[in-house]
Amino acid sequence: MKEKREIYRFLHVTPRRIFEQLDQYVVGQRHAKEALAVAAYNHLKRIEYLKFGGETTIRKSNILMIGPSGSGKTYLARTLAKILDVPFAYNDATAFTEAGYYGEDVEVAIGRLLFATNQNVDAAENGIVFIDEIDKIARRGGGQRTGAGSRDIGGEGVQQALLKLLEGEKLFVPMNVTAHWNKYDYVEVDISNVLFICAGAFSDLDDSSDSKPIGFFGEENGRDRETTNDDLVKYGFLPEILGRLPVRVRLDPLGANELVSILTEPREAMIPEYQRLCALDQIQLDFTREALLEIAGAAMRQRLGARALRAILEKVMHPILFSGPERAGERVTVEAEHVQRALA
């Protein structure tokens, strides 16, 4: 009991507190934030449990996030690492290849984590590794059609290599991620406490799966779907790798009102950022609600979600920023027609 009291005394965070802090940065996606908060809290408990001499009986729960482009997958993972104050490493699964082929070996993912800690092995062993575009390494069956044989060096081969990462213990990791083929600069890292978060759009998963809408409005809008193991196996993933990603988080597409909230409400919102930028030229900048909705609508038409907002804002703000030093003392209000004209 003393051991448990020590652990809970050390952990100042709770799943609710983690959720509330994520809520300050990320708009919407309530279910995803709750699931990440619970997984992160359990991750911290597991680390502290082992520090206090507990047996290795608590297995880590790696996470698979499924959601369209621009729904906040990368931002959620990066913000979570910031809240937990642990090292974070971003990786793109499309760069990985099977061992022995030109490209990145999967060990580079831990090498980036080590680089983020300035080669501090102890810190890296408790970090978060984010692997984006995981859907791009789905197993492909085109070998017989194309005459390429049965090798799938960017698909199934990478999945096989990731198995040792997702549930590994000790790994030899390259210290120089820019020259990872140099076999002499390696260090041993215990990755049993590293939390892996994998993410992908899985854009055609619903078209090929038998999953049914769930939830109160599931039958009408189809936004909440239960993604089963069978769906992901049909998509091209090995059952073994799915077993090492037990926490499944599904993110919804962002609507117009949510995109407007992203522009104005979070701590790192874009509109206040541009207002501060204009304030340096002594310009008071305002946006009407209609202008914000026009920007959100343009982002939805591009089907890029929140990722499109900054590019759209740059186009809208270009005339104002260009003449900014000459308009000191003015109050500038961006209307819907200004947005339409800028995007025409």
Notes on the structure:
- This protein is of the alpha/beta class and 344 residues long.
- It folds into two domains: 2-250, Rossmann fold (3-Layer(aba) Sandwich), CATH 3.40.50.300; 256-343, Helicase, Ruva Protein, domain 3.
- Helix content is 46%, strand content 12%.
- The protein is built from 17 helices and nine strands.
- It has helices at residues 2-10, 15-25, 30-51, 73-84, 108-116, 121-124, 143-146, 156-166, 205-208, 218-221, 229-235, 239-243, 256-264, 270-279, 289-302, 309-322, 336-343; strands at 63-66, 88-92, 128-132, 170-174, 186-190, 195-200, 247-250, 284-287, 331-334.
- The chain has a five-stranded parallel beta sheet. The chain has a two-stranded antiparallel ribbon with strand order 4-5. The protein has a two-stranded parallel sheet with strand order 8-9.
- α3 (30-51) runs parallel beside α4 (73-84).
- The longest helix is centred in the first third of the chain and has 22 residues, at 30-51.
- The radius of gyration is 23 Å and the shape is globular.
- The protein starts with a helix and ends with a helix.
- The model is unreliable at 1-10, 142-151 and 212-223 (pLDDT under 50).
Which helices and strands occur, and which strands form pairs?
Layout: H1 2-10, H2 15-25, H3 30-51, E1 63-66, H4 73-84, E2 88-92, H5 108-116, H6 121-124, E3 128-132, H7 143-146, H8 156-166, E4 170-174, E5 186-190, E6 195-200, H9 205-208, H10 218-221, H11 229-235, H12 239-243, E7 247-250, H13 256-264, H14 270-279, E8 284-287, H15 289-302, H16 309-322, E9 331-334, H17 336-343
Parallel strand pairs: 1-6, 1-7, 2-3, 3-6, 8-9
Antiparallel strand pairs: 4-5
